[in-house]
């Protein structure tokens, strides 16, 4: 199923929650909606499910206007973070539920439903749990059953709203890999909401970054890392270094900075802000540079070099230990970013303060 969302808006009272969403999803694609709390991800999902309605805009699925269709006619599979399975039903009956409550004319026969459930139990790798009740399952097992229940109706679109949010990190990782496999086998067009970057990038074909009711960027992990479309995206991705620069002929300039590897920006000359990632900066010895190696540390795999300028500004640089050059404390090095993004100062919300950089678990050298 293809989904075409156009100019979708939604407000709750005075609060604009979706401010013009345009998004096309291909048949069989797995797309992650990634964004901070309150960015409108769940509201968008609910509108697709028919549990809420937009103020304006379009929602067309496989050529059909879904805004004219009530929720029960949309054939949606929905899995929430806290999915309530029916406690008095076994796993088998929970998965069969969506099929067994269909109107008589559309309901498959009992043996067809039983065969479908058996097929799903195998796909979900839980045949051994078929006769258990929800209270006899772990959280991860419950979410597998919840997905089974959503898949049983052969949904046109599968919507997953932080389905693993309540589970611990190791189980989440297992379930992610498992969900990817299930998706490959079912080919359901799937929208997955998360605020966890790692989850979004590991699972999805494309990631949609949302902020304050707008789509800030759509792309792969590499595109979003290397070419954040806005200061918001750069900061949301975390571990970002911001440096004031002067833009000249589309190129960022500052003392001790060699930004020749970055694409030129079609922006007016003048002051701007350069956003860099510590793991995408190379260092080259340059006695004329104001950046001096203040300290370095290693966690075994990576070396973190802290470059300091006389005004106290620090730039962390992360280098793979086995391919890092020999670095000498107190020596001046030029910063040579490999990727990075420049934004005009007027596009940068100063109130949206940069997040602190994560500290590497390190052993000072
Ligand atoms: N029924 C409602 N009435 C009023 N405000 C609402 C309603 N539903 C959501 N909101 C508001 O809309 C905004 C977006 O909410 P939404 O749940 O879509 O965000 P989200 O990105 O899914 O966040 P989270 O990751 O925390 O679930 C929030 O500010 C929320 O308080």
UniProtKB/TrEMBL annotation:
Single GO MF annotation: ATP hydrolysis activity
Residue ranges that the Swiss-Prot or TrEMBL entry lists as coiled coil: none
Species assigned in the record: Pseudotabrizicola alkalilacus
GO BP terms, alphabetized: quaternary ammonium group transport
Stated name of the protein: Sulfate ABC transporter ATP-binding protein
Keyword hit for Nucleotide-binding: yes
A cellular component annotation (GO) from this entry: ATP-binding cassette (ABC) transporter complex
Keywords: ATP-binding, Hydrolase, Nucleotide-binding, Sulfate transport, Translocase, Transport
Documented EC number(s): 3.6.3.25
Ranges where the ABC transporter domain occurs: 3-237
PANTHER family according to UniProt: SPERMIDINE/PUTRESCINE IMPORT ATP-BINDING PROTEIN POTA, SPERMIDINE_PUTRESCINE IMPORT ATP-BINDING PROTEIN POTA
Domain of life: Bacteria
Enzyme class: hydrolase
InterPro entries recorded: AAA+_ATPase (IPR003593), ABC_SmlMolc_Importer (IPR050093), ABC_transporter-like_ATP-bd (IPR003439), ABC_transporter-like_CS (IPR017871), P-loop_NTPase (IPR027417), Sulph_transpt1 (IPR005666)
